[in-house]
Write a structure and sequence with these properties.
With 227 residues, the protein is of the alpha/beta class. The chain has a six-stranded parallel sheet with strand order 2-1-3-4-5-6, with helices on both faces.
Length: 227
Amino acid sequence: MTIRVLIADDQALIRAGFRVLIESAPDVVVVGEASDGEEAVALTRSERADVVLMDIRMPGLDGLEATRRIAADEDLAGVRVLILTTFELDEYVYLALRAGASGFLGKSVDPDDLVAAIRLVAAGESLLSPAATRSLIGSFLAQPSRVATAGAPARLGQLTERELEIVALVAEGLTNDDIAERLVISALTVKTHVNRAMAKLDLRDRAQLVVAAYQSASPRSSSSSST
C-alpha cells in the first residue's frame, strides 16, 4: 500500500527537501505541497492525502488551525497530521495534540526517522519526539493549573485499573513493545487495552490519549506520582 503524503510549509526549499527525502522510500509518495494552512486543508481534501506533514508557523491560517479543520472534517477521518517544526516547545506540543495531530517531530529529524514516522502515523499510531515528550510532561507537572478540563477525570473513571496503568505509560511516550516489556505482557495485549481505552473515551488515536491523560491530571496525582 502506498502512503500518500502532503507537505505543508511556507518555505519552498524545505518542501523540496522533504519531498526528496520522502520519495526515496518505495512505499511513500508526495501528492502535493502547500505554502499555508488554507491550501493545506484544500489539498488534503482534493488529493486524498493519508498523512499531512504540517508546519506550525505559516502565514494566514497557521498549522494548528489547519490541523483542527482537518481533524474536525468527517470526510477526512482517516487523515493523520504529523507536525514538523523547529520549535519543540511545550505549548506547541500540547496545542498540536489538542488540535488533532498524531505526531510531533522537530525539523532536524533524520531522514530514516521521518519516513518511519510517516509509516507509523499512517498505521494509526502516534509519535512524539523525545524532546517533545519531555517538554509535554514537564509542562503539565510544573503547571497543573493549565490541565484541568471539566469532565476529563470522570471520563478516565470508565477505564479499568490495567487500562489506566497502560494509558499512563502511553502518556510517558512508551511504545506498545516498551509497555509490554515493562508489564511483562504481550504487545498484542497492550494494543488491545489501548484500543479499548480509546474506544471508551471516544478518542481517535494515541496522541489524543496522551492529551486526555494529562488533562485529567491533578496537582495531587502529579505530586504523588513523583514520590
